[in-house]
Amino acid sequence: MSVGVRACRPGRFERAVRTMTQSPAEVAGQLWPVYVVADESDSMSPYLDQLNDGLDSIRQRLGGQPMAAAKVRFSVLGFATDATLRSHLVDLRSAVEFAPLRTGGATEYGEAFRLLADQIPRDVARLKSEGYRVYRPAVFFLSDGNPTDEPGWSPVRDRLVDRMLTPAAPNIIAFGIGAVDGDVIRRVATQPTFAFVSTEPAQIGAAIQEFFSSLLRSLVASTSAPADAPQELIVEPPRRFRVELDVV
Fold it and tell me: What region holds the VWFA domain (predicted)?
């Protein structure tokens, strides 16, 4: 299935999700791996409870919609000086709770992308070996600060999203809050329309709430199509964020 664009309501961006193809006889179901990548650096410490509460809300609210939850396998990755896979391929219909995020350290984007580059191909291979048709993974990236490993993080990110090097390369939807530079968030995202920057940088708590609201609405919208219909990645923009476009 090729990537395409279709008409959408104002303020809503839609892209088709490219399928990792399998023959129909092999397919046990359809799964979409989703990764939340959350900044765990020192500056996020005042908002740690809000981050964990937001993740728990996603688990409960999407888990209460079995048709949508059945299509998602949900992972949580935290990053600071190192990156850690906190929760892995969780079936949101289960009673499994997410391991909590823990803050402390620098803001090394490269560690997050390095772990994703190792984990995503293995996850996709595992799910396909279990007979599932696997849709291109999506990464929802959240940070409140500029990378402390500039410029080294950028080549790591570029290798992750290069579909020649990484056939299961993810779509990355990036959200910048607090003091983060909008151009940095644009460089993280895989499309200009996937780069969102808070218009109220001092209101970090409110921006985190909007991030989780956008995440939930995007997951529900992207999993609402019947199994025999085209499957699309639908990104529902957060309120009080702007789309960070580049200069040509």
Answer: 33-215
Q: What is the pLDDT of residue 9?
A: 42
- % of the chain residues with pLDDT over 90: 79
Burial class (CB in 10 A: 0-12, 13-18, 19+), 245: exposed
Q: 87, 76 in Cβ contact below 8 A?
A: yes
DSSP string for residues in 43-90: GGGGGHHHHHHHHHHHHHHHHT-HHHHTTEEEEEEEESSSEEEEEEEE
Alpha helices in the chain (DSSP H): 48-63, 66-69, 109-129, 153-161, 182-188, 204-222
Q: Chain-centre distance of CA 247, in angstroms?
A: 25
Q: What is the fold of 27-243?
A: Rossmann fold (3.40.50)
Other CB atoms within 10 Å distance of the CB of residue 143: 27
Q: 154, exposed or middle or buried, with CB in 10 Å at 0-12, 13-18, 19+?
A: middle
Q: Is residue 16 over pLDDT 80?
A: no
pTM for the full model?
Answer: 0.90
State the amino acid at position 161 in one-letter form: V
Helix (H, G, I), strand (E, B) or coil at 236: coil
Q: In the prediction, which pLDDT does 26 show?
A: 53
Is pLDDT above 80 for 246?
A: no
Contacts of 14 (CB under 8 A, 6+ apart): 5, 6, 8, 232, 233, 234, 235
Give 29's strand partners. 132
Looking at per-residue confidence, does 224 or 237 come out higher?
Answer: 237
Q: Is 43 in contact with 178 (CB distance < 8 Å)?
A: yes
What ranges do the domains of the chain cover?
27-243
